[in-house]
Structure formats: C-alpha cells, structure tokens
Amino acid sequence: MLRTEDLSKRYVRRGHEIVALDSVSVSVAKGEFVSIVGPSGSGKSTLLLALGGLIHPSQGRVYLDDQSLYDLSREERAALRRTTIGFVFQTFNLVPYLTALENVQVPLYLNRLSPVKQRERAADLLSKVGLGERLGHKPSELSVGEQQRVALARTLANTPRVILADEPTGNLDPALADEMLDHLSDLHADGATVVMVTHDPRMAARAKRQIRLAEGRIVTTESGASVGA
Length: 229
Fold this sequence. Notes:
The protein is α/β, with parallel strands linked by helices and about 230 residues long. Helix content is about 35%, strand content about 30%.
C-alpha cells in the first residue's frame, strides 16, 4: 500500500548539507501496524511526513496504492490526503477559538459535506471517543486527554485508510499514552494501515513490525509483539 524507493532528503543549513534520509526503501502492506523507531535525528519524522505527501524528497519516490505521490501536483496531493490519510501529531494542533465539534468539522468542511452532515458526523465521532457531553467546549476548557481525543476524532472524520502518527504519546502521561495506543490498535483491527513514529520501546512493541532508523538509513526490521498485548 505504501512504499518508498531510494528515498533521500537533504537540507542545507548554514552552508552545510544535512542528510535526513539516505536511500531508504521500505514497504508497508495494507492493514499493517508498523512502528518507526530510532534516536533523535535519525530521520523518523522526515520519513513519516514523506509517506504522507508533506515533504518533497530530494530523490526517490513514494507510492500510495501504486500512485507516485510526488508526481502529483500540490493540490492533487492535498486532495488525496483529505480522503485517504489521517495524521496524529504529538501536538494536537486544535484551533483554539473553535469548539470540539467545530474542530472535528474542519476536514468535513474541506471535503464539502453539508453543514448538517458535518455536525452529525462530528458529534458521532466525539461521542465514540467519550466526549459527547463536551461538544461545545473549546480546547482551553478541555483536559490534555480530552484534547487528544478531539484531535483523534478530527483525524477520523473522513474515514482515512492510512493513519500516520508522529510521536502520538509524547505529551501524554502513561495512562493516556496507553489509551491512545488502544485507539490506534482499534483502528488497525478495523482495517486501517497504521504507521507510528515513537521513541518509546514499550509503545513500539504494540506494532506488528518495527523499522529502526539510524542516520537516515534503515538498520533493522523486526516483528513486534501482538497488537493490544
């Protein structure tokens, strides 16, 4: 479903070249739950963002269902992300002046759903993550765990087939981190393809497979524990 071929990403900072990814070739099958691990600066987040069509590589290709993402225009990639890919970030990126309901409505609005259907879909998703009584609350009126669940509901608004999670438990205490991983495991069980960047070995072990990066290269690939274990 997702694959890269000789993917490289280089930056120039203060006259020096920085290699974030170095000829990375990797495949993620439909319905897999994969964790990407490695030390800080190993290229984990760069790889995830490239898989999501957000960072144009210096060389190589990224494929989603045999479509080369970076052969598409910026607008075409954005349209594909809206319908196919959901992102979960370490920071929740909620709009502070919108309510929980309105935050979840944003991707539905962008997909031109009618206002009535937007509200119905957003309310249903928030109810499913336990926030049915908090629809009218703004992010500042919600706990960290509640903000996390609003962000997750927003991610799921357009029923993405691929979930890309970048350190989704990085700002959470252990109990909330486990709750987040339970949500991702449930999505995987329902058929979603999940790719998660994490520095936490315990969280990485929840995936079916681990890909370890170092200095922009894949150094190992190994099976993980059973999801939900």
